[in-house]
Amino acid sequence: MSESEHSNSRHLKPVDTQSRALTTHQNLAYSPEEDDREALDFVAQWNAILKRKWVVVSIIIIALGVGVLQTVLTVPVYRSTAVIQISPLTSTVLRIQDFEAAPRSVQALELYRETQFDILRGRQLAEDVVRRHEVWDHPELSGELRQRSLTGEIFALPRRVRALLRRSEPVIQREIDPEVLQERAIRRAGAILRSRIDVSPRRNSQLVNISVSSFDQRFAARMANAVVEEYIRSSMQRRYDAGQEAREFLETQLNEMRIALEQADQSLADFAQEQGVADLSERLGLARESLRRINSRLNETQSELLQVRSYRNLIQNGRGTEIRPVTNDQELQRLQAELAGLRTEHASLSQRFTGNHPSLVESRTRMAGVEQQISDRRSVIINNVLVEYANLEAEIAALHDAVEDGEAQILALGQRSVQYNILRREFETAQELYNGMLQRLREIGIASGLHENNIAMIDPASVAGRPFLPNPRRNLSLALIVGVALGIGLALFLEFLDSTIRRVDDLERLVGRPVLGLIPLVKLRQQKLRNVVSLRQEERAVSHYSEIHPKSSVSEAFRSLRTSLMFSTPQGMPKTLLVTSPGPGDGKTTNSINLATVMAQNGARVLLVDADLRKPRLHRDFGIPMAPGLTNRIAGISGDNSTSSIVATTVEGLFLMPAGNQAPNPAELLGSERMQKIITMAGRAFDHVIIDSAPILGLADALVLSRLVDGVIMVVAAGKTTKDSIKTGIRRLMQVQAPMLGTVINQVDMDSPDYAYYSSYYYNYYSDPEPSPEEVKEESPRAIGQPG
């Protein structure tokens, strides 16, 4: 509270609140810090859009203009599509190696198809097409011919400026190897071609559409067919290379086994010749049978070791993902299928969001997690293979020990026949392994010579007859949708930024008091009246509107306000009433005059007091001198019992006490005991006393007067008075325990969607015709109220 407020409070006598009519209203709960940014309901949002319909329409027009401009700037793009069939592999190759096994489940088949789609979209395939067809210098693939777009032209401006600046800088020419330049051109052309390739599988079918887009319809068809041909050729080449690697590996192993077999055969023959060992006798039957079983197990284990060794060799060559335990693992197939689904979902999200959008970041995190699980699973399988290999070697070593033990037992029966049996078993084992490896090598040779191809071109790409882009209908539809969304969003955002009071429920929540009345906006200065009615005449006509147009909607609004005041307290209409506002220009003076007028028209004796001693206006509206008036009465110049300071107006029953001479200390005068005495005496002499005071913010006048009256109403201007100023004003009134009755919303535009309900059901019952220029000229002087 300001110093003047503290000084004035010392001159005030405590008012007996028990005897006043507002006791029950002073206990109403009020919280000035109540949040006034509650969510708008659907009706409020619709009203906000209607109020700013031209903003919405403007945004839509701009969006449609951008869509049209984008359509005009877009260079026609043609798309050619080739159809291929990707069938699952039908043949299997050998049980010890599987360089491209056929998928055996739905998940594996889906994983195989997704792998082929990634190959079709891959960098290597695009570069191979460019290299094979020598199109790296084509205008589209070299970057000379690019698509034009409105956003692209805008974002290209800085790059073009930098390019112009670089031209002025000296350039050091360096010789570059032509092969390096050609390789760079191939990579650049491959990247551009890759961006033009679209792979779209057909649902519930093995057919896949391979599409290529280009500014030249013939070039688009040529590249689409070239991509398919290169894909088929590379697929067959990969299978052929895998078969060759497997064959070379088996040939190496077979050569080693042949040498071992020859050595075993030679050793057996030499020993038999030197020692003269004959066939074993019947006594050695049991020992031989046991040794035979051991050797049989040894053969199986060595065969298994050979198979696992092939896996180990592939692992050591960096091809661990091709071994059968990895390709046939169901858990790994499930993880790979899940990764394929996540990639599809990520591709869909990438079309809707860009950059580090939370949905894209989450999708990448999930894909990285599944990829890590796939890597971990492969590592576990590979480690198991390596462990199995070590176990087999250990088992073979143990079986060898068992063989030696059996031979030692046989040696005890026949020292000379033991060595012979050992050599013979080694020979037989080596011979079995050699025969098995030779058979498998022949099978690989037959399989690699079949040249099976599971990919076929079904429908070659043809030259497109019409452009794929631009699509005017889609562009304009998208522009319309974006325009509507942006327009509505901007309208709601502007409504959110609007801190003024526009709705009744907003004001009631903010103040904690009821809205006593809505005063429509008086529109006099329109059309022909703009040239006839002066500002002063208009001001007077508005102030005396209830007198000039008693059957208008404005007059009815003030009568409704009068009725609300009658029911504002249990005792009825307050005897003394203070009319104030948060700031200047809210219409408190106009409301005071019209409220006093309708009270007087109802047969009451009403005194209207101009207590705005800083900027008095009532004397000007009624056309009387400013003095003598209130300040003279307080100073005692006109005497306590003199009525010279009270002037009768043209409205029967309405009397006016002007402000009087200018005073240097208005707050001290209004807070004096004489002011309280004047109000008390006026209350006895008149039925109602309406005091028009100065604004609340920045001044203590209204706060001082609020302690001397029976009720206070605050006038706020719709669309002008801010919520912060209202909260500050209410807070100051509550600090001095003012008998706050409620608020009045002034200057309400009944054509606004915010008040359509009140306009339709309350105020349109009364006609409010716009006064003619002659009517304003004739009636405005009468409204001034010259005393007679």
Strand neighbour order, sheet with most strands: 5-12-11-6-10-7-9-8
Strand segment count:
12
> Mind telling me the C-alpha Rg?
50 Å
Give the CATH superfamily of the largest domain.
Answer: P-loop containing nucleotide triphosphate hydrolases
> Could you say which overall geometry the principal axes of the C-alpha atoms support?
elongated
CATH topology of the largest domain, what is it called?
Rossmann fold
Largest sheet: 8 strands, mixed
Mean pLDDT across the residues is 78
- Architecture (CATH level 2) name of the largest domain: 3-Layer(aba) Sandwich
By secondary-structure content and strand pairing, the structural class works out as: alpha/beta
Number of helices: 27
Helix content: 55-70%
CATH class of the largest domain, named Alpha Beta
Question: What proportion strand?
Answer: 5-15%
Q: Span between N and C termini?
A: 44 Å
Structural domain count: 3
Low-confidence stretches: 1-40, 91-99, 525-533, 766-770, 772-788
